[in-house]
Structure formats: C-alpha cells, structure tokens
Amino acid sequence: MFHYLSNTLAVRSSIYSISLLVCVLSLPSHAQPGLANSKQIAVVEGIQLPAWVEREGRKQPLQPGMALQGNERLHTGQDARVLLRLSDGSAVRLGAQAELKLEGLVLKTGPANAATPALLQGAVTVLKGAFRFTTDSLAKLKTRRELDIRFATVTAGIRGTDLWGKNAPDKEIVCLIEGKISVDREFNGEKQSHTLEGQNQFYIAPVGKPNLPIGIVPDQQLATWAAEVELQTGKGILQRHGATRLQVGPYSSLREALTVLEQSKDRGYPFSLATQRDTQGVNYSLVLSGIVDQDEAKALGEKYLADLDRGGLTLDPSRLSIKTSSK
C-alpha cells in the first residue's frame, strides 16, 4: 500500500512524490523495471478478474498480454479464471480461488536448421484450486515435453497430453482427458507410482489416506470439472485483442484518482491512469483495456463496484463508462 504525504511537507516534495506514484501505478505491469531481460515462458491470453501475479515479492493485477517468467506465482479471486499460453503453444487454465507457480520452465531450442523438436522442461505447481493443461496437435509436433504437474503430494509427469487436476482441501484429483501420464505420490514415507493411459481415467488421493482405485470419469462429471477452469461468457472477460475499455472518472483531483487506482489494483483490477486537458484544466481517469465487448464490460463494471465496496471503497456507478475502439 502507498502512503500519501502529510500536509506539513513542502509542496515541492508533495508534487514530486505524487508524480512518482503516477509513474509507478500507471506503468504497464509487463514493463516493470528489472524485467526487460527476463526469459518469457508464458503470456496471459485471457482473464476473468480478479487475478494477480506475484513477482519479486510483490503482487500486481494480471492483464491480457502480460509476459510471465519462471518462478512467478499466480493467484485468482472469487469467480475468476486465467488462460495462459506457454512458449511451446500449450494452454494452461486456472480456476477460481486458485494458486499456481511456474517453476523453472524453459524452452530449449536447437539451431534453426535442425530437425530436432524444441524441448519444454520444468514444472507447474498447483498450490490450490482447479487447473487444466492442454497441448494441441501442432504443439505436439513442434515441441517435446519433460514437464511435471505438481500438487501437494501427487506429481503427474507429462510428455504431451490433455490433463485436468485439482488441489482441494480434502483431496488431490488428476484426470487424464487424452494422452498418457505417470502419477507419483509420496504417502507414509513410500513412493507410489501409477500410469494413466486410458481416456478420461482419473486418480484421487484423499488427504492422509491411501489413493482410491483408478476409475473412468462420467462425461457429465468431466464437463463439470472442465467448466471450473473455462472463461465464462457474461462474467467480464478480458483478452489480448479486446477492443473495449472500462473507464472510471473523471476526477479533478489527482490525489483522489490515485486513491481509487491504488485500491483497484489491490483488488486485482489492472487499471492505468489517463489524463485529459480541457478549458477547465486537467482531469484524470482510470482505464481498463482489453475487454471483449460491451456486454462483458458491463458485467465487469458491476463486479468491480461490488469488489471495491467489499474493500471499503464505495464508488458512484455514474463514474463508470464504457468505450469501444474502432478496428
């Protein structure tokens, strides 16, 4: 949280500090200092807010197009979703109230004229919540995988597949939708290994108890599980090329605009600060871009107001407006 300056400070110092706040709070998250030379291993393709990335000990809201590096942690809030695209083309989906860590992911490529496919190595740790990893047919041909999906006690080793899993308070679930995976579990000091290679096979490890027999999930249950991680139409979807934006303001006071901006980011909404100059002087607005369309923007605005209210800041709905850029 930022702390605003006391009125007893010199005016020049106050102006300097507010200017610094503007630079920090309105800087795009993917352009934060110190990240320019980092290795990109994933990009955010779609979001259902609120969601955050934790990097270098600091949480900031996710936004479409944001580049992610290894060893970063993602968090999702109530009724949220995240869709990532890994550097090999695989898709990673994360459900609500979830936490995921990208650990040491790296895409190794050979010479441009070499016939050997690239190799994706590393691990994805599902700390809590629902998750899905999907490799499409083109990505399977272009890239090999030595990737572990880790839960609390269970690790699924994959080489190219479609996998759904969940780290719940009372159990860990791994469901193979397509392909083949190895599943290892540390239980009572022993390592237990299994192989899933039949479509829709699933494995459940209850907390503190032996795993259940491997079974076949019914189509209706699989559809329910899959829906836990899919972006939901009408819930305020943002995507990389969304042309609609939500605006808050205008404010004549920079200090007031910064207060709302700070709380919006804390609640997981990636607004940036914009200034407009007219005959009356300078006004300030908050802008959230990348929304799919006006219907999604309306749904997002309603959710945003409710989230701010839960955080202790009540915002007049008349301050919200929706704009769509021409293509």
Q: Can you walk me through this structure?
A:
With 327 residues, the protein is of the alpha+beta class. The chain folds into 2 domains: 129 residues, Sporulation related repeat (Alpha-Beta Plaits, 2-Layer Sandwich); 189 residues, Sandwich (Jelly Rolls). It has 5 helices and 22 strands. The chain has an 18-stranded mixed beta sheet that branches. Strands 20-21-19-22 form a 4-stranded antiparallel beta sheet. Strand 20 and strand 21 form a beta hairpin. Helix 1 runs parallel beside helix 4. The longest helix has 17 residues. The two termini are 37 Å apart. The N terminus is likely disordered.
Supply database-style keywords:
327 residues, alpha+beta, Alpha-Beta Plaits, Jelly Rolls, 2 domains, four-stranded antiparallel beta sheet, 5 helices, 22 strands, elongated, disordered N terminus
Task: Give the gist of this structure.
This protein is α+β, with helices and mostly antiparallel strands and 327 residues long. Helix content is 19%, strand content 44%.
Describe the SSE topology.
Elements: H1 11-26, E1 40-48, E2 51-55, E3 58-61, E4 67-69, E5 73-76, E6 81-86, E7 91-94, E8 99-108, E9 118-134, H2 137-142, E10 143-150, E11 154-158, E12 162-167, E13 171-178, E14 181-187, E15 190-196, E16 201-206, E17 215-216, H3 219-227, E18 237-239, E19 244-251, H4 254-266, E20 272-278, E21 281-291, H5 294-310, E22 320-324
Parallel strand pairs: 9-10
Antiparallel strand pairs: 1-4, 1-6, 1-18, 2-3, 2-5, 5-8, 6-7, 7-9, 8-9, 9-12, 10-11, 11-14, 12-13, 13-16, 14-15, 16-17, 19-21, 19-22, 20-21
